[in-house]
Give the backbone structure.
Amino acid sequence: MSLRLRDLIKNVRACKTAAEERAEIQKECANIRTSFKEEQHEYRHRNVAKLLFIHMLGYPTHWGQMECIKLISSVSYPDKRIGYLGLMVLLDEKQEVLTLVTNHMKNDLIHPNQFVAGMALCALGNISSKDMARDLAPEVEKLLGSTNPYLRKKAALCAIRVLRKCPDLMENFVPKIRSLLSERNHGVLLTGVTLMTELCETDPHNVEFFRRLVPTLVRILKNLVMSGYAPEYDVSGITDPFLQVRILKLLRLLGKGDTESSDVMNDVLAQVATNTDHTRNVGNAILYECVQTIMNIDAEDGLRLLAINVLGRFLANKDNNIRYVALATLSKVINADIEAVQRHRNTIVDCLKDPDVSIRRRALDLIYALVNESNIKILAHELLNFLQSASVEFRADLATKLCDVTERFAPNKRWHVDTILRVLSIAGNYVPEEVPCNLVTLIASTPELHSYSVQKMYIALTNDMSQQTLVQVALWCIGEFGDLLVSGGGSDREITVSENDVLELFEKVLKYPGTTPNTRDYALTAMMKETTRLTNPSSTQKLKQLISSFQNNIDVELQQRAVEYSTIFKWDNIRKQLLERIPVQEVVRTNVTTLVSPTLTPDVGKKKEGSSNVGNLLDWDDAGPATTPTPNKTTPQTSTNNSATLNPLLEIFGGSGPSAPPVSVSTLDPFLTLSPTPAPPTTPAIDLSGLLGGPSIITPTSLSTLSPSSPVMPSSPLNGPLPTMTVYNKNGLMVSFDVVKQAQYPNITLINCSFANSLPAQMSNFEFKAAVPKYVNLQVKPPSGNIVPPLNSGKVTQQIKMQNTLHGDKPLLLKIKLDYQLNGAPVSDVADVSFPQGV
């Protein structure tokens, strides 16, 4: 005789090792097999129950599946109960043995005992296959109209599984579902609303049909909110919160995009948001669903404000889960009413001090979205204060977001410099590479900030040398504007600095234990620049000695810089011109600056407005006539990948093909490679590869070849227009190029880009990015907007200008990337643009 289930559990729990447990299970399985073989009917239900326990432990039990079917065919209710339980646990819809149970289940669905029919519905709703669902769908449909509430709610849940497997049967069930809402039993109402929600999510066409039931749903929800104490459905003083949550979720689906339905439910949503008790967790669940519904339908402005105030109350809750939900929801609805969210700004800022890191991260994301021109100073001050005490794992994200909002919303350039400088002083080792790159570009392009910035950098560097990014930027500024630091140029002089002070600072930086080899590279270049900035010959001689001391350095990079810089001292006639100050650059931020950062070269010719040297983005060894001088050295940074015969744009946005190492334009490497043969003073050939962090060789001449006599977008009549090119047409977005050529400039191509949207929803946060080979120069104008209107009701336009420096030898190549948000979901795509031959 086999063991009882409780005895088997007791024996298994008494096993002290896995081997003992396996032996006990194998012994009992042998006994169960023997019992099945001998057809011991009186013990069959007990053996199947033990098989369920063995299955839970992870042991194979497939050999007992047929016994479940034998129990289902029994007339005994206890046998059927164990049989259906074993059927749902031991089998799944892929088992062929299920075909044997279909007839038994069909008979049980029409069984006079409601509990037998209920078990059959449960089994069908859990493991039915497509064929099984189609065969038994008529019985389920009949039970949906049963007068027994117990069977109706079971049938509604089973119908969800049936319709998932056989969506074509939906039209047979939809008329039956409407009658479920007239039932007074809350169980039937709950399952009926669940079934309607499932149908709306499965097939959006059902939304139009069920919208006529919105008044009925509103009446049911209003009765639940306004009803008194109902002991049968009461949960913590709230009547049936489960049904309320389900109705709110269904109303969200039915009201989305429909003004008439939204108007019907506005009043009841206001009642739910006002009358629900927010001191209990049950009430908070209802309020959360209510807020989600309000923000997703065409609700009134006052109702949206009420919903955001509910989330504001959530932020004051002591439960971290509720606060996290509030922050996450506010991040989603901020675009709907940013002014209403701004009222809770102080509470959101306080969340940055929460011990829970997930709360802090959500609060940071929300603050990042709240920042605008009017509150940038207040929020930046709060974020800076928090940055000082932030944990190490949190500093990188915080510093990145703080620098980003500062660059986007800075009220003036001086405040911009002060804020970024403070970030570098606190967390300079955690900021991304583009931050110091952009700061250097800002200082270099703003003459009135030269004296102020170099003084601030000098003070910051003397106070702390631990933040290497700050040290590098400060060295760059001192190297460029050291004469202003010593002479006290400008009216905003804060400190008095002598030439000896500058020399001592260089020595401290070089001797500081935390100084990296890369920072010493900056120091050498800054000292070389200072030889033309300082007036005292003894200072120049001291700098020369410091530079020469690195000629035998173990670091090859430092050694080569020292050797080359020492060589420059032999050419005093051109040394000052080689090391002259960076020209003023006019930098215009466009929506392609996320792809290409402004150049950091200190000796580059003046850029035109809106220009971006996109050629520096790539690293190729072009097999064509060189347009720039060849560097006289080879370092790891200047290695190239000879892939001229293949499409070099494949790797720009993540495509396939031969990969070329991208050039990081934000490395701030100040290395200069000079030709050993003195070049004419007017056009010195200078390798600025180190300054760009890559191998691009730039000269003032090569940068000025974009027809300086013609504006970026000429206003003169253009000749030679080509037919409009549709370069992209997918997912409702169509991109068209109107290409225009000028006869006097055959290597220049002017393009008017048009972006149209044929979908019923607008495309927001639209960004157009472009990449070209390094033999092509690109200039981009700002777009006319960042929202593409729906249904082709308007267009976003943008102009670009391209110059093929190898026109006639190499084709014009362009790769575009399109980013936008559609219905709140981000969309991104990449495309190659092919131009007609000769363009």
Observations:
- Residues 615 and 774 are 3 Å apart (CA to CA).
